[in-house]
Design goal:
Elements (H helix, E strand, L loop, with lengths): L1 E6 L5 H13 L4 E6 H4 L9 E7 L8 H8 L12 H7 L8 E11 L7 H11 L3 E2 L4 E6 L9 H23 L1
Parallel strand pairs: 1-2, 1-3, 3-4, 4-5, 4-6
Helix pairs in contact: 1-6, 4-5
The structure holds flavin mononucleotide.
Amino acid sequence: MRAQVIYESIFGNTAAIAEAIADGLREYAQVEVTDVATAAESPVPSVDLLVVGGPTHAFGLSRARTRADAAAQTEHPAAVDIGIREWLDDAPPAAQATRCATFATKAATPKWLPGSAARGAGKRLRRLGYDLAEGPADFLVDGVKGPLLPGELERARAWAQHLAHNEFDRLTRRV
Ligand SMILES: Cc1cc2nc3c(=O)[nH]c(=O)nc-3n(C[C@H](O)[C@H](O)[C@H](O)COP(=O)(O)O)c2cc1C
């Protein structure tokens, strides 16, 4: 099984979750992890499972303005020019019904806010003809910059293992 994880991250928390997800998938799949700026320069990957995630900004997927707000708070921002929203808005329809899953990071503190970038990404992928393999998953950071809450990397790895196990089962049952 081939899988690709594509992520957006300004402060690095979503990047860390993306790597933990890739670790979890590796038990059942060959996995590549790509940030969205790099993904935007390549054709959409032809894989069995596409996993897409980003930080929740203003209750959903980031926009240029929210990324600029975030980038102003760190000396080492990543992927500011393009986010998951823009990448998916420009992506071609799925060539075939490829399976996908989405994840997001969001602030657990100072207070719980509604909304998730994972839901926005899932809606866009469905519109492009992808099949959602799993409900959206949210992983929590402390405040705006993080770090991730204790246990979130392990939870991401376990979520991905479960996802990959189910998808591997599904693929092998089809043969
Ligand atoms: C401009 C901006 C808006 C944000 N809006 C929300 C929000 O609506 N809900 C939420 O839970 N977290 C919100 N956050 C916190 C982000 O989700 C958090 O910065 C992100 O998970 C960190 O991921 P990263 O390290 O990969 O950039 C916001 C952060 C920024 C900078």
